[in-house]
Amino acid sequence: xxxxxxxxxxxHQIRLAARPVGLPTDANWSHTSEAVAEPAEGGVVLxxxxxxxxxxxRGWMNEGKSYIPPVAIGEVMRAxxxxxxxxxxxxxxxxxxxVSASFGVQEYLSLEAADMRRNGLTKIDLRVGxxxxxxxxxxxxxxxxxxxxxxVGQPQAGETLVVSGAAGAVGQTVGQMAKIxxxxxxxxxxxxxxCDWVVKELGFDACIDYKAGPSAVREGLxxxxxxxxxxxxxxxxxxxxxxxLARINRKARIVICGAISQYNATTAIxxxxxxxxxxxxxxxxxxxxxxxxxxxYHLAVAEMAGYLKDGRMKSKEDVVHGLENFPNAxxxxxxxxxxxxxxxxxxxx
Length: 349
Ligand SMILES: NC(=O)c1ccc[n+]([C@@H]2O[C@H](COP(=O)([O-])OP(=O)(O)OC[C@H]3O[C@@H](n4cnc5c(N)ncnc54)[C@H](OP(=O)(O)O)[C@@H]3O)[C@@H](O)[C@H]2O)c1
Fold this sequence. Notes:
The chain is of the alpha/beta class. It has 2 domains: 3-136 and 316-345, Medium-chain alcohol dehydrogenases, catalytic domain (Quinone Oxidoreductase, Chain A, domain 1, Alpha-Beta Complex), CATH 3.90.180.10; 140-291, 3-Layer(aba) Sandwich (Rossmann fold). It contains 11 helices and 15 strands. The strands form 3 sheets. Strands 3, 4, 5, 6, 7, 14 and 15 form a 7-stranded mixed β-sheet that branches. A 6-stranded parallel β-sheet has the order 10-9-8-11-12-13, sandwiched between helices. It has a two-stranded antiparallel ribbon with strand order 1-2. Strand 14, helix 11 (326-335) and strand 15 (341-345) form a beta-alpha-beta unit. The longest helix is centred in the middle third of the chain and has 14 residues, at 140-153. Residues 54-56, 141, 144, 165, 167-171, 189-191, 194, 235-236, 257-261, 288-290, 333-334, 336, 338, 341-342 line the site of NADP nicotinamide-adenine-dinucleotide phosphate.
């Protein structure tokens, strides 16, 4: 793109204006715009095509220590995404290349050479998966599901795996990978439509609608896990974690991936009441942070791209359009309105 054309572009951005208490509201965001500059020597300018909306964003908005620093007040909101190189002064990246990167909630990102690695800039191949699949099964949630299951869950054929958030981004990868590894797979999800999808489309053995009533999870686990639970992949925490802990087998593995039921809590987070089940069953509960596996992502991508191609794996994305819709779209994750990996399309591919 010529210098004249670049400088005519306006980069619309959404920044963190204030830290939320409970669910984020419009008051937590500010909308800004700035000109797009020429790339520095060795740098690139990227156009955002689609952003990954993640439950973790809620955590990044909080003050305090975590596995990654919080987004600062006034900073462009952090977001992973996929996009296209539109200007380059770097031999490794040509105009037109598709990439994934930490774009932020904005339309353009200018990256200097020194920041490319830290930013996670990686070329993506659209022959292997669609843009939105690169945010789902082939992207961060897929890597989370894959390594959380394989490295922490350590599935063995014939074992029973339960996964919560079953119809979501991480959950769909976990359940399908566990089926491929020969497990009995029981999902937990909100509503009949999501439950029907994971059973009929993804091939899970059963799915429990946790919204069906106060004893739905307890009764569902009893009915669908007659041999107990060997692996629980936890995406939600809270009461569902407790209900599953009550049914685990000896040497069970509990993968603590997330606790979305607690992310907007305004009082202390509810921890597991049934943790002594770990003692009785000589079981293990272990957390996972996806970024620890970055040097092995390519292996998981290669394996799962094969399953997407041969039909053993499916993916579902829920696409919302328009950068300006980011604040409302994010809320879909917390009220369960998203059906599949939540993606914000920012520009046409
Ligand atoms: N550790 C890591 O490195 C890592 C990386 C990525 C994601 N994660 C975690 O993995 C989990 C899933 O993330 P995702 O990107 O795959 O999101 P997702 O499952 O696609 O979307 C979130 C889903 O959470 C469910 N949910 C919301 N509030 C809930 C509640 N109170 N109780 C039970 N379920 C609730 C909703 O589904 P229903 O309709 O079924 O309620 C919603 O659709 C999150 O906890 C996230 O933080 C961790």
